[in-house]
Design brief:
The complex is a heterodimer of chains A (about 260) and B (about 500). By secondary structure, chain A is mostly helical. Helix content of chain A is about 80%, strand content about 0%. Chain B has four domains: about 90 residues, no CATH class; about 90 residues, Glutaredoxin; about 220 residues, Rossmann fold (3-Layer(aba) Sandwich); about 35 residues. The chains are: A mainly alpha (about 260), B alpha/beta (about 500). Strand 1 of chain A pairs antiparallel with strand 1 of chain B.
Chain lengths: ~260, ~500
């Protein structure tokens, strides 16, 4: 445990004592803020239109959870797909490039401890990104409580499940990302391999649209973006949780195998 | 030799990957990916032969042994993960953390699901991008979650026309078929209420059977002539409803009758026959479809008036129909009410030689009489029937009524003592009988109009009503100032804080 913590601390420092994490957060908040603003202003325009056309029954359908926050989380999930390979790309590849890898391998730290320590550091960045997303609903909750037309506020429970789902999705992406990083000493190759892996897992979902029967269901299940859907509705399905944990475990397992194979290759 | 072998090996490896990729991506299994993979394998084998010495020493090496071990370990781990996921999929469990449990089923549905003891499969004919699909899939998943004898399948009607035909699905009719080993039922409303009532029908109800009344010159359900009803009867059989004939002058109305259909009688019904029908309706919560023709007195007029339907002594003329290649004596209907029969109807229907049938001014107590189809504003109800025979009709102010005219009505009546869920008496009356015959049935929406009517009158289950759940509305109207605050915070303030942090850190690190 202490070993994991030591590795974690070292990696955490590299993220947060250098501009790396802050540049990532800056770009991320810029893009997700743009997503949010676009979806939210569309929502507002629609509400106003219904108000002008005196369509109260349509106004009853307007819902911040379903029409703003849910699409926002689903969009950010795709954005994560592109962002996370950049976060994980240097984790192991850089050790190889700096030739500190051999040093690390000869310390009395097991390969599992190395992998988990580094992985947890990348999770801290992802967790921070998920928390950034929560700024938007919190911001909204300051407004709209007064004035007769605004009703009720956001339902928080579905947001918490969405956040949990987004974090698990990010963690799954990162597990594949760290595996890609263990394959090479070039950060660029590491990032590209991770993109490839993640995109493949995404594209599988498209293939399911054309398939029929059992194959369709299997492809749909494998698709890495499918599983956030239920979380964003406020539902936690065991199978989605198991799926994410499977990807995380398998990614880390492959990384560990890849790292320890260094000893006999 | 070795060089060629190496090239062959590389091409083979790429070929294998491309072939595998195509195999996974292509929806239909075609020979191409298999051919590519087979050819690639040949190339790889060729490579192995060309580099026999290298390959041999590769397999002898220590690293290869470790590598094989690792590969095996990876495969075993993957298999274990697959099994765990399979179990998780087969035994779903979920938590609905929404305030009003909007994604959970109602208690009524859960009760019905508990009564299912044999397999029921739902066939939903919706394309993947239809607005109903997502919500419907959620519902199906939920039903399956509570009873795994329930299964479902989405069928894209565009891609599978043969299955659309096999199930006799139409664009305006029901698009969900629930099927058990013995029975099937059709669901028009893709909601929890619709599905659950459909399930009740599959689990409980007896087989539906409708009787066509004969003996008064009604159209023949065995006749394949243009004026016959054979194709129409077949279409109803395809929906899982039995069809038979009955002469109510000689036979009693059987116990298994789900509904009676009187299609275009040309002779008078005897008073005893009218009474038999009246008793059937009154005592057995009977169901009836009557299709009339202009100028013909049937003797049913009194009975219909009792139920609030007034057959007009007229003939509908619509010059607009000529625009559709029909004669003026074939009025066109493009306006429907929001009745269960015509819900979502968007196509025209045609009624060759028709009279009006309309709700009476004061409807009898406990009865609901509703016009379900009306003709166009350009039509009128000609009362001078002689002028039609002469072929010189014109609208006479005062005598004739201007369209839109009611051409079909639906009646439902409940006994005063009946509870909310008990069955009602249902009657549909059309001012025409030819619209559903072999010749006119295929025209536009005619066939659906008739089938929907049959489906409505044969519905006999104790229907339950379930209020659709949805999130309570939450909306925000921001003032311009508030909107600006949101905008500048999200787009400028927050990113700026992070970028500033990055700059400061760079600065500090430089100074060190």
């Amino acid at each position: 445990m202490r070993n994991i913590l030591a590795i974690f601390k070292k990696e955490f420092k590299i993220y947060f004592d250098t501009p790396v994490a802050y540049v990532i957060f800056g770009i991320f908040s810029l893009i997700s803020g743009y997503f949010f603003l676009q979806i939210f202003s569309y929502f507002q325009r629609q509400s106003l239109q219904f108000l002008q056309y005196q369509a109260p029954q349509m106004l009853e359908h307007m819902n911040l959870n379903d029409m703003v926050m849910r699409p926002l989380f689903l969009n950010i999930n795709v954005f994560f797909l592109l962002m996370i390979p950049v976060i994980t790309m240097r984790l192991i590849a850089d050790e190889k490039r700096l030739k500190t890898y051999e040093l690390l391998m000869t310390t009395p730290v097991s390969t599992w401890q190395i992998v988990i320590g580094k992985y947890l550091a990348s999770l801290s960045v992802i967790l921070a990104m998920v928390l950034i997303v929560f700024i938007y609903p919190i911001l909204l909750s300051f407004f709209g409580s007064e004035g007769g037309l605004s009703t009720g506020s956001i339902e928080w429970m579905p947001l918490i499940t969405s956040g949990l789902g987004l974090f698990l999705a990010g963690a799954a992406f990162a597990a594949l990302g760290i595996f890609a990083s263990s394959l090479t000493e070039s950060q660029i190759i590491s990032a590209i391999v991770a993109f490839g892996l993640l995109l493949l897992f995404w594209v599988i979902g498209w293939a399911s649209a054309g398939a029929e029967g059992v194959l369709k269901e299997v492809l749909r299940y494998l698709s890495i973006l499918e599983h956030l859907d239920q979380f964003t509705k406020g539902l936690i399905e065991i199978k989605d949780v198991i799926y994410y944990f499977s990807v995380i475990f398998f990614g880390l397992f492959l990384t560990q195998q890849s790292v320890s194979s260094q000893r006999w290759r | 030799m070795k060089k060629i072998g190496n090239i062959a090996g590389i091409i083979g490896l790429f070929g294998l990957i491309i072939g595998l990729f195509l195999f996974l991506i292509q929806p239909e299994t075609t020979a191409l990916p298999l051919v590519i993979m087979a050819a690639s394998l040949v190339l790889i084998i060729f490579y192995a032969f060309a580099n026999f010495q290298d390959v041999k020493s590769f397999f002898a090496a220590r690293s290869t042994r470790y590598g094989t071990n690792m590969l095996l370990l990876v495969i075993v781990t993957l298999a274990i993960i697959a099994v765990i996921n399979y179990i998780a999929v087969r035994h779903p469990y979920k938590f609905d953390l929404n305030q009003d449990k909007i994604y959970s089923l109602s208690d009524q549905t859960l009760k019905v699901l508990k009564t299912i003891k044999s397999e029921v499969r739902a066939y939903a004919f919706y394309p993947p991008d239809a607005p109903e699909t997502e919500r419907l899939r959620d519902l199906f998943e939920n039903y399956k979650y509570h009873n795994n004898l329930f299964s479902y399948e989405f069928i894209d009607p565009v891609k599978n026309p043969e299955r659309v035909n096999a199930f006799a699905i139409t664009s305006t009719g029901p698009r969900i078929v629930l099927k058990s080993a013995e029975r099937e039922s059709r669901v028009k409303d893709p909601t929890e209420e619709g599905l659950t009532n459909g399930l009740i029908a599959v689990v409980k109800a007896d087989k539906k059977k409708i009787y066509f009344v004969t003996g008064h010159g009604e159209w023949d359900i065995d006749s394949k002539e243009e004026t016959g009803y054979a194709i129409t009867a077949d279409a109803i059989r395809k929906e899982g409803i039995e069809v038979a004939k009955i002469n109510i002058g000689t036979d009693r109305i059987p116990q298994d009758a789900s509904a009676l259909i009187i299609a275009g009688p040309k002779k008078l019904f005897l008073p005893e026959e009218v009474k038999a029908i009246g008793d059937y309706l009154q005592e057995r919560m009977g169901r009836l479809i009557v299709m009339l023709e202009p100028e013909i007195k049937t003797g049913l007029e009194g009975l219909l008036l009792d139920y609030g339907v007034n057959p007009g002594n007229d003939f509908i003329v619509d010059p607009m129909s000529r625009a559709f290649g029909m004669g003026a004596s074939i009025p066109l209907v493009a306006q429907y009410s929001d009745h269960e029969i015509t819900k979502g109807f968007e196509v025209a229907t045609f009624y060759p030689t028709a009279r009006t049938v309309s709700p009476v001014q004061t409807v009898p107590p406990g009865t609901s009489v509703k016009t379900i189809a009306s003709t166009t504003p350009s039509s009128w109800a000609e009362t001078d029937l002689e002028s039609i025979k002469k072929g010189e009709v014109s609208f006479t102010e005062g005598a004739d009524t201007k369209g839109p005219l009611s051409i079909a009505v639906a009646v439902s009546r409940k006994h005063a003592s009946a509870s909310e869920n008990s069955p009602d008496i249902r009657i549909v009356v059309f001012g025409d009988s030819e619209f559903a015959n072999n010749k006119f049935r295929p025209y536009s929406g005619n066939g659906d109009m008739f089938n929907n009517s049959v489906n409505w009158v044969t519905q006999r289950e104790d229907l339950i009503s379930i209020r659709p759940k949805k999130r309570a509305s939450s909306r925000i109207f921001l003032t311009q100032q508030e909107a600006n605050i949101v905008k500048y915070t999200t787009m400028i303030a927050i990113p700026l804080v992070f970028f500033a942090g990055a700059v400061v850190l760079t600065f500090i690190r430089r100074r060190k």
